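Annex B.
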Amino acid sequence: MRVLAAMSGGVDSAVAAARAVAAGHDVVGVHLALSAKPGTLRTGARGCCTIEDSHDARRAADLLGIPFYVWDFAERFTEEVIETFVGEYAAGRTPNPCLTCNEKIKFEALLEKAMALGFDAVCTGHYARLSVVDGVPELRRSRDEGKDQSYVLASLTSEQLRHSMFPLGGSLKSEVREEAAERDLAVAKKPDSHDICFIPDGDTKSFLENKLGQTPGQLVDEETGAVLGEHTGVHGFTIGQRKGLGIDAPAPDGKPRYVLSLEPVSGTVKVGSRDRLAVTEIDAKRPIWPSEKPLDGPTECVIQVRAHGGTADAVAEFDGEHLKIQLRQELQGVAPGQAVVLYRPDEAGDLVLGSGIISATR
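tRNA-specific 2-thiouridylase MnmA: predicted structure tokens.
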């Protein structure tokens, strides 16, 4: 097959490309330039998608003996990822920009261009297991549970998955680093990137305030209605947040307060005790079925609401438009805008049944 290997400049994508070459595919490497001003993205251990990373990707491609290109996706990244991120926070929701990037950039824009150029598949270094049985894709958790990325891939359509390759799904991260060292890849010991790549200093609140300005509002005790303080914008808060609330007086019981809800129109941020964060029901919109099999009646499953952690046994139903999920165990800090992913546990590795965007919780 003709395979386009998305090479971020990290160890995972380099080894994934190497495995595609070793499997006998005709491989071409590509690095995505996602910023019109690469210097504004992080560098070193905390970054991704930087000039430094493009150089690392090129060196890995040269060692593998494959052609290498840099494609400019900065404009689309800004529109699809950054502007969506800002807009969601302004609306009082909590988005996952990595999920959006996978959906809109790596497996929509990139895959579209790859198909137009005659490639059969896009190969990435994501940790997830993928198989196609009788033309139907099956996306599962990776062998390395700590690195599993099936959550941020669960928004991909079956057609996108049919043209995707995840060579690392059956490996542990330690094994990937060992293989990189054996192949003399310079990125073998390169630290993993983390946090949000387009926020240079990691200060999400300041980034959003710079984009949205200040929209003052009140911090209100949910139970009593008492005004506890003021803030400069609901975009500076997320459901479940405990630190940085700007409340001077302690709660009557002496326990910490948490953000319970956000009201962008009135500018009200409601806070309260931790036990009021408990969620037992979730509604979700925009359902996606990677294996083209919508739920048929009440379905026992395990749901996940964050990239790492936040899982619970549940019963999910699909009414033809929305997902209705009843949790068997309470979850806390679940926010509208987050993705919820449904899994079916099995011996082969939990199968992704579907995903949706959380619209309401109770």
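DSSP finds eight helices and 17 strands in the chain. Helices lie at 11-22, 51-64, 74-90, 97-116, 150-153, 158-162, 173-182, 204-212. Further annotation is deferred to the next reporting cycle.
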